[in-house]
Amino acid sequence: MANSDYVKQGGGSFATLFYINGAMGYDTDEIFYTTIRSNGQALEVGDALMVNGEIMAITATGSPLRVKRGCADTRPSLHAANSQAWVFRASTGSDRKEHAAGETVAVKVSPFTIGGGELAIERITPRAVEFNWRFFRPYTPAQMKVNNARWYVAGEINDTWPFLALSWVHRNRVLQADQLLGQDDAGVSPEEGQTYMMRVFDKDGQVVRTEVGIAGTSFNYGRAQALHDVGYPTIPYAATIRFTAMRDGFDAWQDYVIGFSVYPMAVIPSNFMAFPSVVIEAPYVLNVRAGQGSANHAVAVAARPTDRQSDRFGMLVNNSELADNAKSPYTAWLDTQFRLPELETTVIARDSSLFTGVPIDGRLMGKMAMINGEIVLVDGVLSDGVSIKRGCCDTIPVQHAPGSRLWFIEDANVRDRVPYPFGTDHEYRTPPELYGAAVNPATLPAYHAQFVGRSAKPYVPGRIVVNGRPWFEEAQAVSGGSIAFSWARRNRVTQAAEVYDHTRADVEPEAGQVTRVMFYYPTPSPTPGGDPIINYLRQEDITGTSYNYTYDMALIDGDIAGRATGVCGTVVIYAWLIAVLDGVTSYQGYTTPVRVPSYPCV
After folding, report:
1. N- to C-terminal Cα separation, the chain
2. Would you say residue 528 has pLDDT above 90?
3. Contact at 8 Å (CB) between 129 and 104?
4. Are residues 381 and 478 in the same domain?
5. Which domain holds residue 578?
6. Are residues 8 and 78 in the same domain?
7. What's CA 579's distance to the chain center, in Å?
8. How many CA atoms, within 13 angstroms, populate the side-chain half-sphere of residue 41?
9. Residue range 235-268, pLDDT digits in tens
């Protein structure tokens, strides 16, 4: 950058600067100094100091100065003798300009000379200032301890300490504002959405474990996990942990580096904590992406146990382990905060897998998820949830109650690679992979998958509109008019490469595929608690993308349904729209309530 490119921007008076006489350890709270360059202001209690990037607060003046360590967004560090200590007060200067994150600014600080002028610009050494969201990042925690000792004391995982017990107190960038809380000050409530992240590094500096979404003020890193992470050594193994705060995808300005050693152990005991899982017959697109075509296979997803003591899960079918011993990391998930109507595309999370160390992040973009059987596509990852595309693959958009679980099924799953005949039923269990003794399968919940040939079924149409309204709203037959149904066709085979949602325009269907519209009315089951009886009134197979239900049809169907159910005046029947190919019907279909004339009331 040329000297002519520099622009005078802001200014300030000189700050007080001194040099510390002796080295400072992590806990040193007093500073001896002999050389001071003052701006004329005396040091005061509450003044902020900065030594090699660490911010401190003066608690008592004199010689020595007393200070609080690790204030603001910093943690205590080691400082060599003769390090500079800068005092921050109103004397500091600013360019009074807002800079973008990622911007690097070249700066020259120009003092006024005794003669009253500024130093020549070419004689000033330039400095570069890199902006990296520091003001926005969460504050690093305080009082960081490992096995009840300060974080800088190397911890051990052995027979006495079967886990590395980490503990800390919260800090809050917003709540603290201009308060300088030190390392040993009491904790405060964290920022909304603030959690913690722990990364484990082996002796070669490679990351062997990442735990995100840690909440609260403590976390135990188990011996079984540590032995697995470092390769089951036969002698004590030295590794490293880096621990930091996180919020909105940003980690803290500084983190803690924690050394520890893990000691070998012949037998690793383990405890099993129950966790939810789901087993389904796989839709066609998941089979194709796994190279299994239209055969019938099962897929399982599972939530990581809240104790985080297991990293993967498997699948047992009919109490036998899968032939290829398939294992998978746990599946990401979130629970919905609010009711999710049929066409809503924003999902706000009440709870999520982030708090068991399985993050909701950018890796999920463009992948399929499942909520109560409906397949959706992740369209965006938000700070408090996700945006989705609805009714994908062989499913339709349906309404979901608050607290429904959205499984990111394509993120992580275990697949039964053995195909099963149509109509068969199989029992599945999803055992966690434990580092110690295996869990007894009999203690696990069983899931049944009844194979209906889902992968061979044609895809149900999308974009269903009835009289210009969504299909789930009631349509009414009016004299002289008709009820217009329209839709967009789908193609199971061509959609394997690209997942279409409900709103996608019409595509060329599979050869021979038709859309079937059926009208029916239900009557109660003769068996108490049984399913209602479906009574069909008419059926039409259409090769195009529309169908008109005339008023004359409504008169005939309404009279039949009204007399069968004893409802006069008007009666509600139902239109059911599905896809059919070679006698095989789609996995799901659309139901529209239709109000039609019944026999006259007397």
Report:
1. 95
2. no
3. yes
4. no
5. 462-597
6. yes
7. 35
8. 16
9. 999 999 999 999 988 999 999 999 999 998 766 6
